[in-house]
From TrEMBL:
<dbReference type="GO" id="GO:0006508">
    <property type="term" value="P:proteolysis"/>
</dbReference>
<feature type="signal peptide">
    <location>
        <begin position="1"/>
        <end position="18"/>
    </location>
</feature>
<dbReference type="GO" id="GO:0008236">
    <property type="term" value="F:serine-type peptidase activity"/>
</dbReference>
<dbReference type="InterPro" id="IPR022700">
    <property type="entry name" value="CLIP"/>
</dbReference>
<keyword id="KW-0378">Hydrolase</keyword>
<keyword id="KW-0732">Signal</keyword>
<keyword id="KW-1015">Disulfide bond</keyword>
<dbReference type="InterPro" id="IPR038565">
    <property type="entry name" value="CLIP_sf"/>
</dbReference>
<dbReference type="Pfam" id="PF12032">
    <property type="entry name" value="CLIP"/>
</dbReference>
<keyword id="KW-0720">Serine protease</keyword>
<protein>
    <recommendedName>
        <fullName>Clip domain-containing protein</fullName>
    </recommendedName>
</protein>
<keyword id="KW-0645">Protease</keyword>
<feature type="domain" description="Clip">
    <location>
        <begin position="24"/>
        <end position="81"/>
    </location>
</feature>
Amino acid sequence: MWLLKYFCLVLLFYGAKAQRRPAICKSPNGEKGTCVPFLECELFKKLLENGANKLSDKQKQFLRASECKQRKDGQFPMSCCGTATNFKD
């Protein structure tokens, strides 16, 4: 009986741990990235440090296309965060 309880606890632990791992996604550049909350992406934070009104149309389009999952709590969407700073058309 204790073996069954132990097995169930192990499954619960690994299931919860797997849910916290960011999903792998593909950025608009075709680069492999991770699906994270928008403001947790260093690349996007750096872009916004200069001011959202200073973004080019190409950069704005890239940010919109980076959405990988809509959040239910009404906050910023989940975005595919990579490392590339060259925003392709």
